[in-house]
Automatic annotation (TrEMBL):
InterPro entries: AAA+_ATPase, ATPase_AAA_core, CbbQ/NirQ/NorQ/GpvN, P-loop_NTPase. Residues 51-231 form the AAA+ ATPase domain. One of its GO terms (molecular function) is ATP binding. Signal peptide: none annotated. SUPFAM superfamilies: P-loop containing nucleoside triphosphate hydrolases (SSF52540). It comes from the Bacteria. Coiled coil: none annotated. This is MoxR family ATPase.
Length: 337
């Protein structure tokens, strides 16, 4: 398959149309069996599992906070995590279920026969996990048709970016997170309690955009995922992309060298590139390896791929200067060598 796919010159390629694009290699980056946790994260995870407490993760975007939940579920042989994406309008109840009062009102007004409260309730991540910990026969009066499980099971619940929610959200979850129950006022205030032997595993992520309440923090196991050092980052790259991480890979060593140069405080970048951006950038750079032993030495190659690494216009200008200087240094080193 030819590359590039898009010429932008107002002409169609003389090939079969519509063009077939390749499956994105980025999909492989999200495979849970490719995830490598650092020793501190492994310990924090095991402590949370032993104590049955939520694991609260912080760290730079792209350090693997969200993917830890998928790695954990996969390694323990559980279903994929039930994910809840926190918003600025999120309330504690939303983590368990949502009730579409507007649709019910409209249906009542239009004379729709099916106006039972259960028809307008959608169970969310933690609510579904609690339901799945119970035998279906015990809660069949609560199960909408879209929730089907043949036997009770443990679930992994991912509460993503909890710091986006109002501050009271975390405090409002305290009892429910510890005792694993919730109530549905719309169903005569019915209390739904999970099986304590199948307590859901709760992973919570935060980008530290706002402080979380002390009472909430006391109920969690906490770990801050550090940005990986060069050696560990090379291991992550090798595991996910199959690029040789040893000293025999000048391409990877050069890529990491430039990557850390861009992340350095001297670069002046406002938004430093993270691991996820590095992996995407390396995928693109690999497409140019047939043109040069080390495509990074080619100025035009780096600039053509910079959009996958640097995400603001201001930072792109600064990054270009860093790249120019870095390339000149590399060429001088090559000449001396």
């Amino acid at each position: 398959m030819n590359y590039p796919f898009y010429s932008g010159d107002g002409n169609r390629q003389q090939s079969e149309l519509p063009i077939t694009l390749p499956v994105s290699p980025r999909s492989g980056l999200l495979q849970p069996d490719n995830y490598i946790a650092d020793p501190g994260l492994k310990d924090a995870c095991n402590v949370a599992l032993l104590l049955g407490q939520p694991l609260l993760l912080t760290g730079e975007p792209g350090t693997g906070k969200t993917q830890l939940a998928y790695s954990l579920a996969w390694e323990l042989g559980l279903e994929q995590p039930l994910k809840f994406e926190t918003k600025s309008t999120t309330m504690a109840r939303d983590l368990f279920y949502t009730y579409d009062a507007l649709k019910r009102f409209q249906d009542v007004q239009s004379g729709v026969v099916a106006t039972k409260f259960l028809d307008y309730i959608t169970f969310q991540a933690l609510g579904s996990a609690i339901l799945r910990s119970r035998n279906p026969d015990e809660i069949k009066h609560l199960l909408p048709s879209e929730i089907i499980h043949s036997q009770k099971a443990r679930s992994v619940v991912l509460i993503d970016e909890i710091d986006k929610a109002p501050r009271d959200f975390a405090n409002d979850l305290l009892n429910e997170l510890e005792l694993m129950y919730f109530r549905i006022p719309e169903l005569a205030n019915e209390k739904i309690v999970g099986d304590i032997n199948l307590q859901p595993i709760v992973i919570i992520t935060s980008n530290s955009e706002k402080d979380l309440p002390d009472a909430f923090l006391r109920r969690c196991i906490y770990y801050n995922i550090p940005f990986p050092e060069s050696e560990r980052l090379a291991e992550i790259v090798a595991n996910r992309l199959g690029i040789n991480a040893g000293g025999s890979s000048p391409f990877l060593q050069a890529a990491l060298n430039l990557f850390y140069r861009l992340r350095a405080s001297q670069s002046g970048l406002r938004k430093k590139p993270a691991t996820a951006e590095l992996l995407g950038w390396l995928i693109i750079l690999q497409k140019f390896t047939h043109e040069s032993q080390n495509p990074l030495i080619q100025r035009e190659v780096v600039f053509r791929t910079l959009s996958s690494l640097i995400k603001t216009a201001e930072d792109q200008e600064k990054a270009r200067k860093v790249v120019e200087q870095w390339i000149q240094e590399q060429k001088k080193t090559t000449q001396i060598g």
